[in-house]
Each structure stands twice: as structure tokens, then as C-alpha cells.
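G., the chain you wanted modeled:
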Amino acid sequence: MSAPARLGYVDGQHGQIHFTTQGDGPPLLLLHWAPSNARQYEYIQPRLAAHGFRVIAVDLPGYGRSHKDTDGWTCAQIAAELAVACDALAIERGFALGGHLSAAVVAELAILQPARWPRIVLDGSPTLTPEQMATLMSHFAGLSPVFTASGGHKAFTWDMTETFLSEWDPDFRATPETIAVQYGYMADYLQMGYAAIRGYLEADAPKGGLAVYKAIERWPLIRTTVLAMTAEREALRAGHAKAVSLLQDCREHEFPGSHPIMNPARAGEYADVVAAFLKGD
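Predicted structure as C-alpha cells:
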């Protein structure tokens, strides 16, 4: 195995970007699902490093320990900020992987700088129809961090985390065996800060990210080679075929069952698929 991951910061245009890096070789940028952070790849990162990559897992602006000057930002704005950070990380040419929200960010990186990113991985493409997205978001209805006399705010973080973890993995249940996983993602979620958490849930607040992203218009602009990944039981599975149809140079892979990203026992399976694609196997 490679040396342990190291932590660091680089400057974007609007503030500092936090990252962890491990391994040597061609750069591989990992962008997490929202609302997590780079910690999501803690089991996958060393596996990819062992495949011969310099793996850089980044906290997206607005998440984790990266700066929070992102109110209402679009996916293109997040990508532009990360492009500056990639300059500071000396990534002249490499690979990028993102899932869900960060799949859109990786797509925007590739559209912005196609020569820098000859191969990218879109893990769960956000190409649901408006109706499908509305159904997905309806599962979060009624959840709010706002202080109420009824005390609903006291359980908000637990309820919200349990809900999105169940979206990511339909088999997830809060049990004595999984409580450490739940608390890890609760900590990730709270790092967004109160204002951002409320902003994503309140109808009168500014919206950015996937709320305004139009993948169906943007995906055909991607000129680089893409691996589109999904799982049999995954929240964005319904949009996978549409995503593949929009991409000009695409490979695809479907993981059996639920998505492996939350299962440390399947980290090797995940890393092997990604590494084989990036190496052109």
C-alpha cells in the first residue's frame, strides 16, 4: 500500500480549498457526493493510489473544510473555482471523478478545460426528468433545521442524514452496527453550516447546484472520454440511460445491487472498475 493520505489547502479565487492526497502517478481528482466531503473516499482513495495514481480527494467549495462563500453557486461556478485550485495542485493533465452533484461539477470541468481531463468518471448522472427529481426531493419534505416550539429541529440532523443515506443505499438502516456511519455523515452534513443547510431546504432561499443544473443540455458538450457508472439500486439510476445517450464518447458500468461507495468491503471493487477505465483497459 502507498503512504498514508496527507491533508492540505490550496487557494481558489474565493477562499481556501481543502484536500487529501495519497499516492504517486497521474493525478486523479475525486469529488464527493453532496452533502458529504472528501472523507467519503477514505476507503477508496488508498485503493486507487495502489493502482498507481496521485489521488486528490477535495472538499467541494461549500462543503467540509473548504470555504463557504458559495451562496447560490451553479455547478459551473464550483468547477471554475476548482480549476483554480487544480492550478495550485499542479494538475496539468489528469483524470476526474464525481458523483451526483459532483458529477455535474466534473462535467463542467471537462467542458471548461477538455485538454486537462482526457478521461472522466460520472458516478450517478443527474439526468432525471423534473418529475423524477421532484419525486426524489419529496422524501425530504417537512425536514427543516429552523427552531420550532415542537422541537423538530432537535432531531433534524439525524432525520436528514438517515433520509439521504437511505436514498444512496436503499438497504441502509440505522442500527447499532451502522451508527458510526450515520454519525460520520452527520458530522459531514453539519460542516456545511446552518445558513447553507437552511438555504437548500427553504423555498424562499437562493438556489444553486443541481436545483438549476440542466444536465440534458450540458452533457452533449462533453468532448472527453467518459465512464458513466450507476448501480442497480441507486437514487439516480432512472437517469442513467438518458445520460449515456447524450455522451459522445462513453463507456458504462452498472454495479450489482446497491452502490458500493458506502460499503468499505466493496472499495476494491469500485477502485478496480475506475482504474481499469482510466488506464484504458
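Residues 6-131+206-278 form a domain with the Rossmann fold fold (CATH 3.40.50.1820).

Shout if anything looks off.
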